[in-house]
Design a protein that fits this description.
Helix content: 25-40%
Distance between the termini: 58 Å
CATH architecture of the largest domain: 3-Layer(bba) Sandwich
Strand content: 5-15%
Order of helices and strands: EHEHHHEEEEH
Number of domains: 2
Strand order of the largest sheet: 2-1-6
CATH superfamily of the largest domain: FAD/NAD(P)-binding domain
Radius of gyration: 20 Å
Largest sheet: 3 strands, parallel
Number of helices: 5
CATH topology of the largest domain: FAD/NAD(P)-binding domain
Shape: flat
């Protein structure tokens, strides 16, 4: 049996990588929940910064662009640079792409990766299975890399938490929990500004 390539992560990059590897006849095992970061860690109502033409997952086969998904799903077509993509549309598109191009997705976590003598890799899954891969592609995005400034550490000794006094923007999908409450947003980048705007729309005093 040919040793497979392991792809860790089932977001846009992981799914696209798996599609290209399979199109070249390589055995691939893909691990993760499809589009989980986009589905659970982006605020509802968020709009993508990229244009529709720049938001399709790269695929070796035709018929898998964002426009193709919109046409099949009956979603309003997104065809010009002026069209704005809601995060919900992009997430649904990613799930549609996964079902078509990566149907054998394994919804388990990789808990360890070790290099073996000879160059292969040994991977351990949270299911208890251990297997060998010829190569490993890590496509986990920014999950688990939330940063808390030292100045705020005293207010969150156990780290940021969605329901705590200090949280990270990646921990919020539904900002309506701040309706009628005062919210301080620290930062002035894309995530901060969008969180502030969406929280204000949800009724928070930002």
């Amino acid at each position: 049996m040919i040793t497979p390539v392991a792809v860790i992560g089932a977001g846009p990059f992981g799914l696209s990588t798996a599609a290209h590897l399979r199109a070249r006849g390589m055995p691939v095992r893909v691990f993760g929940e499809p589009m989980v970061a986009w589905r659970d860690h982006m605020p509802a109502g968020m709009l993508l910064k990229s244009t529709p033409a720049a938001s399709s997952l790269d695929c070796p086969l035709p018929g898998h662009t964002l426009a193709d998904y919109c046409a099949e799903a009956g979603v309003a077509p997104l065809v010009t640079d002026e069209d704005i993509i809601p995060v919900e549309t992009f997430t649904a598109y990613g799930a549609w792409f996964q079902q078509r191009q990566v149907p054998g997705l394994e919804r388990v976590r990789v808990v360890a990766v070790d290099r073996r003598t000879g160059g292969d890799f040994e991977l351990k899954l949270d299911s208890g299975e251990t297997f060998t891969a010829r190569a490993v592609v890590v496509a986990t995005g920014l999950s688990g890399l939330a940063h808390l400034p030292p100045e705020l550490a005293a207010a969150a000794p156990d780290g940021p938490a969605p329901a705590g006094p200090v949280s990270h923007s990646s921990q919020h999908h539904d900002l309506t929990r701040y309706a009628g409450r005062e919210l301080i947003v620290v930062g002035a980048g894309q995530s901060a500004l969008e969180t502030a705007a969406l929280a204000a729309e949800a009724g928070a005093r930002v």
